[in-house]
Write a structure and sequence with these properties.
This protein starts with a helix and ends in a 20-residue tail after the last helix. The strands form 3 sheets. It has a 14-stranded antiparallel β-barrel. It has a two-stranded antiparallel sheet with strand order 4-5. A two-stranded antiparallel ribbon has the order 12-13. The longest helix has 10 residues. It has 6 helices and 18 strands. Helices cover about 10% and strands about 45% of the residues. The chain has a single domain, classed as Porin (Beta Barrel), CATH 2.40.160.40. It has about 375 residues and is mainly beta. Keywords: Signal. This is Type IX secretion system protein PorQ.
Length: about 375
């Protein structure tokens, strides 16, 4: 019984063989960070623990009773004129010792011109992507937590439509005495229900992630390291037009030789979060894969880096983040979180003292 959830994770992670990395996957918008907190942390985290609801949207095992009645709204002006929004809400049910959350993310690509094969303008259309997620988390023993998320996915580009279902399964470990935290997540396991066109079903952007975080004892600083795509060693993109020593397998281009250490670090996302006084958080992240794949030659700038600022006062959290893809290309992300039971008494579980930064790690 006590090993059931670990066994489930191992069995589900074997499903990675049916998933893909790169251009042969669909619903890539599932990987967009749902909040400024996640954007600032480098785009992903599975171990950092606090009272920000978006941590539980990334890894359902990070959902906590302290997130009870938290309402969160996020908005991002993404690159290329793309805009997306996320709405989330959490609720803890003491009678079954379970914390639930639901979220909706909507991505709009603006108005596009509809033409035929000859270039004749037929009108315009607005492509959109959408998913609805429901999550649940429970505690196991004193230091363990496990959770699951289920996503209904829908995409529409003019007459081309697709739907699907995805599942995230995660576990998390926390030792409050030492400040160590760890997490493991199998993400975006699932399939398409309907496809854009007739043919083979495309795989979801599956990922298997693991991470650790450390809250320093005498400094208000938390450090995190997240590994992604740990089921596949070589995740480097190789351009057949400019690179040597590559082959093409099943539609993917793979570099065979050189750059072992570079390839290892492409699996890492590093982050640090520092508290300034009681009400301000400053966050910085670094995504090595993003920098190596998107930075311009001899003009890397801040590619792969991200920064965030959080103002945490009683009854409200305000956050802003900026993430650089290339030297002159970055996107901004803003968000607001409100614990409704602190304002209106909605949801009687929990007191009405408001959120305090020093409580974030003593959940």
């Amino acid at each position: 019984m006590k090993h059931r959830y670990f066994l489930i994770l191992l069995l589900l992670s074997s499903y990675a063989r049916a998933q893909v990395l790169g251009g042969r996957q669909t619903f890539a918008f599932l990987d967009l960070p749902p909040s400024p907190q996640i954007t600032a942390l480098g785009g992903m985290t599975v171990s950092q623990q606090g009272k920000d609801l978006s941590l539980g949207l990334m890894n359902p095992a990070l959902l906590r009773p302290s997130m009870h009645t938290q309402l969160q709204v996020g908005y991002s002006g993404y690159v290329g004129g793309v805009k997306y929004s996320n709405f989330a809400f959490a609720y803890h049910v003491p009678s079954i010792a379970t914390t639930f959350a639901t979220s909706i993310q909507y991505t709009g690509y603006g108005e596009m011109t509809h033409t035929d094969a000859a270039g004749n303008i037929l009108g315009s259309f607005r492509p959109v992507d959408f998913y609805w997620q429901v999550s649940a988390s429970r505690q196991y023993l004193e230091k363990w937590q496990y959770g699951i998320s289920i996503k209904y996915i829908r995409s529409r580009y003019l007459d081309f439509r697709a739907t699907g279902i995805g599942t995230d399964v995660g576990i998390a470990f926390r030792d409050t005495a030492s400040g160590w935290q760890a997490g493991l997540l199998a993400k975006n396991m699932g399939t398409q229900f309907t496809r854009y066109t007739a043919g083979e079903r495309e795989g979801l952007p599956f990922d298997l992630q693991a991470g650790v975080s450390k809250r320093l004892k005498h400094v208000p600083l938390q450090l995190s390291a997240t590994l992604h795509h740990i089921y596949q060693f070589d995740i480097r993109y190789a351009d057949p037009a400019s690179e040597e020593n590559i082959v093409i397998e099943n539609g993917d281009t793979i570099r065979r030789n050189g750059g072992t250490m570079d390839n290892v670090f492409r699996h890492f996302v590093l982050a640090a979060q520092f508290e300034i006084g009681r009400y301000v958080e400053v966050t910085a992240g670094y995504n090595h894969l993003r920098r190596r794949e998107l930075a311009l030659d001899n003009a890397g700038g801040l590619s792969g880096f991200s920064f965030g600022l959080g103002v945490i006062v009683q009854k409200i959290q305000l956050r802003y983040a900026r993430s650089w893809y290339q030297r002159a290309i970055a996107f901004n992300h803003v968000g607001l979180s409100i614990p409704l039971n602190q304002w209106t008494g909605f949801g009687k579980f929990g007191d009405r003292i408001g959120w305090k930064p020093d409580e974030a790690y003593t959940l």
